[in-house]
Automatic annotation (TrEMBL), chains A, B:
GO CC terms: mitochondrion
Protein name: enoyl-[acyl-carrier-protein] reductase
Location relative to the cell: Mitochondrion
Cross-referenced InterPro entries: ADH-like_C, ADH-like_N, ER, GroES-like_sf, Mito_Enoyl-ACP_Reductase, NAD(P)-bd_dom_sf
Primary site of residence: mitochondrion
Species, as recorded: Hypholoma sublateritium (strain FD-334 SS-4)
């Protein structure tokens, strides 16, 4: 991986020539590096009619997930394939990243089938689909894909674009962490940190739907009461800040809440030393499952928890889950999640749509996108960002 | 738990009265605290003939394991039972620890059956046994125990006292860690730190007997070449210091050794940040098993190993293993280990015998024992210490 310095915004306009006859656009990168520097909005040629076994898709809405930025940076273990590269006409010899061979960013999103190639069965124009192959590139108005690389969204008519666009990463992560490591029965407790993350919110809702209790840990913030209310409204049983957890008297409170029932599943997206406080809440023979590392510090746990309380520490990666499971199992999971959405038991986390408008030039759109990337890297988005390319 | 200051050695003699008619002695403590302060050698009355269902034992040799000192300190999760307390006549009103109600230290050791109570079958005078109930107290010349709390040492005639006395903690820990977490086939690799610990030496020998390769990590020391030779003589495939491991070029060396075969089992008794270096040597879907924390720092591992390489971190505690298994399974494990000893595939680690001589008074013996405890706490014993009460 290597990184480029971001050119000052006022110089960006000189790096791009205006595209006269674009038919769609895509958010692309030619090299790995800081997303605020290497991402470009580029006009791309119209797709030809789909060859045999393939589809043309119109992407409706695609999340910009933190992991997607790690892919752009080149530090994520899951990468696009070499043959996912898109070859574009170069516009500007003065833009070192306008190399003509680029990758489209994005891993998740919902698309509408716009054309079906010969020999494709079970999918028709107008169907909503998601891409099942990781890192295939969803940040584009249109994509041409192998029919084998998509799955039809079940009951799409019942879903909003935002619900369908965010269906394949966070909700299945939450669902699987609640079911793959330990059998939980209604009334059992689960503890999680980073509880207001997108996965955390899905955990709260899916746990609630299963009759499980959740003890949710969040950072203190000025509007903590509002956040607690919001998580309670989603179905959180209890919410504590890490500061509240550090107070020794809280142990008695938690014992009263749980009726001294051992908590045997902990979900971690924070890491560092603070996670040890959460791990100490777990009873004997418990499982700690990590799916993120927001503190950017190693997971640090007392060895005694492993030896004397038989704690087991695992990781969970939805990409790996998909790679281990059959198409039928993947479809079954999606149906389960869609059913929860239809029953109003699972909703999309708070989000904001970043629109790349047809009225903007590539240069204007790139500048807007790069500003959003800077804001995201500085943690100024509290909400999930969804990309809409008009 | 509470801790007492150690009285100066020259005052100890005033704290004890000489026992005129002792029939045996024991190493006891009346309160939890620093072993160098709270442990006493006390003369104890002769045992009466054993009641029904019980045995009298003559303890031949008993290790002083680090965990035993943690029990004395009161910081170990496994503790003696209340009814294990021994009631002794008090000798000295000026010794605050001469309270009359004391616990005998020690968890491991070999004893000879000296008398058999009515209704006990399968055990006879002269049999060698080990105590199967944790923390029953082995640091004594004699003990009276329930027959159900002992197991006969198989093929005792083929074993030395030291081999039998150290049979129940370290070798089974090594054996079970090599078999309970992942199926290993001959030629597979295992990596371990603290490789010159008693468990580490057993791991090397048992792995060698199974045709497994070991990559052994040890601290650098002046006599490192000698240590490496000693571990190689036990059967170690490769030995590296942590300093050598920190050098990036070692990765290629390890790849050449293993033929790029993934290492899927790591054994940890160190903890802290250095263990991450070892964990990074593990391939996908590996297991890291911790059985000690010599660095006295939390186990600190990159979360990415859990998420993207599917690392699983466990603990192993032989006491728990015994509590989960039947008497038959425990006997089978002991037979397996005795067979390895008889085949000269497993030997006792380097050790030193601390003898409490019949010629010493209780005061003299206590002073000698407390000096040994100070030396042990300062890490001045490189060898395992075995207690012999004449």
């Amino acid at each position: 991986m290597f990184s480029l310095r971001r050119p000052p915004a006022h110089r960006l306009s000189r790096l791009f020539a205006t595209s006269a006859a674009r038919s769609g656009r895509a958010v692309v990168y030619a090299v790995n590096g800081d997303p605020a520097t290497v991402l470009r909005v580029r006009s791309v040629p119209a797709l030809p009619p789909p060859p045999a076994g393939t589809l043309n898709l119109q992407v409706l809405l695609a999340p910009i997930n933190p992991a997607d930025l790690n892919v752009v940076e080149g530090v994520y273990p899951s990468k696009p394939r070499a043959d996912d590269a898109v070859h574009l006409p170069t516009h500007s010899v003065s833009d070192p990243l306008d190399t003509g061979t680029v990758w489209v960013g994005g891993n998740e999103g919902v698309a509408r089938v716009s054309a079906v190639g010969p020999g494709v069965s079970g999918l028709g124009v107008g169907d909503w689909v998601i891409l099942t192959r990781p890192q295939a590139g969803t940040w584009a108005a249109e994509r041409a894909v192998a029919a084998a690389d998509v799955a039809r969204v079940p009951d799409a008519e019942a879903l909003t674009e935002a619900q369908a666009a965010t269906l394949t990463v966070n909700p299945p992560t939450a669902y699987n962490m609640l079911s793959e490591f330990i059998d939980l029965a209604p009334g059992d407790w689960v503890v999680q940190n980073g509880a207001n993350s997108a996965v955390g919110q899905a955990v709260i809702q899916i746990a609630k739907a299963r009759g499980l209790n959740t003890l949710n840990l969040v950072r203190h913030r000025p509007e903590i009461d509002e956040l607690k209310q919001r998580l309670h409204a989603l179905g959180a049983t209890q919410v504590l800040t890490y500061d509240e957890l550090a107070d020794k008297s809280v142990r008695d409170k938690i014992k009263a809440w749980t009726g001294s029932k051992a908590i045997r599943l902990g979900l971690n997206c924070v890491g560092g030393k603070d996670t040890a406080l959460m791990a100490r809440l777990l009873g004997a023979d418990a499982h700690l499952v990590s799916y993120g590392a927001m503190a950017k510090q190693p997971l640090s746990l007392p060895t005694s928890l492993f030896i004397f309380k038989n704690l087991k520490s695992h990781g969970f990666w939805q990409t790996r889950w998909y790679s281990m499971k059959s198409a039928e199992e993947r479809a079954q999971l999606m149906q389960t999640l869609v059913n929860l959405i239809k029953e109003n038991k699972l909703d999309t986390p708070a989000h904001e749509v970043l629109t790349i408008s047809a009225a903007q030039t590539d240069e204007e759109a790139t500048e807007k996108l790069q500003e959003a990337m800077v804001a995201m890297s500085e943690g100024r988005y509290g909400k999930k960002l969804l990309l809409k390319i008009e």
